[in-house]
């Protein structure tokens, strides 16, 4: 089968799950003999532009004639069976959906976030869950400066999504939505997306054989780990606040917008070891050597690569009872769930697991079994190729 895979990469150095999924999923398809034609852009491209060109590119976020023409030309030349879009925002624009649909190629979109409900894709306002814009009244974003704290940028984004809401772009130009969890499905159906066009498919990670890191002088022998993006949506400020009540070694790896703030806080705490960005292989070794993983996210995770990767390493998780974690964590089996924003609940679960190494190991073994049942590459391939075949037959 021939697939045209389309994606807008985030900036270099940004820890982004959808970038990782795009790379691993296209490679998986190729490893099974499929032909994958990639069409990608990067937000780095925007950063390199001069002021005038940046203004032009900003207007093109509503409708990019450049990418519309490029996709049509590519489809006519390559004749793919399927067009699979991962992320179109901001540079590709929704015009690419029309480009494929008008040439009668089935269009599949993986929803890595909640952008069809919240144009900012976070469903957060002032660090609190918010799905108000699901009603299509996007200009409230301007009042709150939802997009990057800017009322002007929020106005631009609101116009883009208002225009495409009026045209029913996201309802009519997509043949199949791949959702990553049940919460995503509920949010879409609540605002009128057709249930028969929605299918659920988890992400996957390769089963990499990892040994725990050799003795390091910069971290203790026994510790808990957090790794991933150092950003507000990941619950970093909640983690800092809660760890004030824990005398447990915490190793943190990652980078992001709150990195300086977190580093400053970590410097004041003898039981916190901030390693910053850590090369992936070494990161996994350090995770492998941990007692368990904490994941205090405050937004709707799609299908967290950190969570399924931790399970692949046989590590239990203490995670927020929200989004993907609602169905991923079986309380008391492969980890513990704590209520969103409940510091006491989080502290109690972390302390309980820390005090009982045998329980942590038992939960880690169950987590490994859960990974083998749900998140192996070969199982994921059967799902994705099944979706493609179904759409091809309907054509």
From TrEMBL:
<dbReference type="Pfam" id="PF13439">
    <property type="entry name" value="Glyco_transf_4"/>
</dbReference>
<feature type="domain" description="Glycosyltransferase subfamily 4-like N-terminal">
    <location>
        <begin position="61"/>
        <end position="206"/>
    </location>
</feature>
<dbReference type="InterPro" id="IPR050194">
    <property type="entry name" value="Glycosyltransferase_grp1"/>
</dbReference>
<protein>
    <submittedName>
        <fullName>Glycosyltransferase family 4 protein</fullName>
    </submittedName>
</protein>
<dbReference type="GO" id="GO:0016757">
    <property type="term" value="F:glycosyltransferase activity"/>
</dbReference>
<keyword id="KW-0808">Transferase</keyword>
<dbReference type="Pfam" id="PF00534">
    <property type="entry name" value="Glycos_transf_1"/>
</dbReference>
<dbReference type="InterPro" id="IPR001296">
    <property type="entry name" value="Glyco_trans_1"/>
</dbReference>
<dbReference type="InterPro" id="IPR028098">
    <property type="entry name" value="Glyco_trans_4-like_N"/>
</dbReference>
<feature type="domain" description="Glycosyl transferase family 1">
    <location>
        <begin position="212"/>
        <end position="369"/>
    </location>
</feature>
